[in-house]
Design a protein that fits this description.
This protein has about 150 residues and is α+β, with helices and mostly antiparallel strands. The chain is about 25% helix and about 35% strand. The strands form two sheets. The protein has a seven-stranded mixed β-sheet with strand order 1-2-3-4-5-9-6, sandwiched between helices. The mean pLDDT is about 95.
């Protein structure tokens, strides 16, 4: 089967299990899910999902991207990012993504053409009701990365 990426308009919560892989507190997902556009990458079945929001000033933000664990490392996440960057390049100048300071996520986004932009101190401590641990390390600051969409 050929890869298909489609936008999900209704019943976005049907993908909550995947969304929770990237953002493990449902109340945080609820903050952006209704105002964001959701995309799902299918290759026979669901492989990757993402949610992107319009943040104004010709800037959009990748709020959530997750690949089913059994398909991670196979390029589906990178393909989704390339798709959304192309999709948003006609109406936006920049795409942002916020993530924890983790050896799992920062190198992935850098491979996808993002560069560090800024940090929000204590974001994970101030906004989550429990410690977020990744690779044995508690996430504290939100690290924002950006990618220029004008060059696409």
């Amino acid at each position: 089967m050929v890869l298909i990426i489609k936008q999900i308009i209704e019943n976005k919560k049907q993908y909550i299990n995947l969304l929770l892989l990237a953002d493990e507190q449902e109340s945080m997902i609820d903050r952006y899910l209704s105002r964001g556009k959701m995309f799902v990458l299918f290759d026979n079945d669901v492989k990757t999902i993402c949610v992107v929001t319009d943040e104004g000033n010709k800037m959009c933000e990748l709020k959530n991207i997750a690949t089913d664990p059994q398909y991670q490392g196979q390029g589906y996440g990178k393909q989704m990012i390339e798709y959304i960057c192309n999709y948003y390049s006609s109406n936006f100048n920049t795409i942002l993504v916020g993530t924890g300071d983790s050896p799992l996520t920062i190198p992935f986004y850098k491979k996808c053409g993002f560069e560090e932009s800024h940090r929000i101190k204590h974001f994970f401590i101030d906004n989550y009701d429990h410690p977020i641990i990744e690779c044995g390390k508690q996430l504290i600051d939100m690290v924002y990365l950006k990618r220029d969409l004008c060059k696409l």
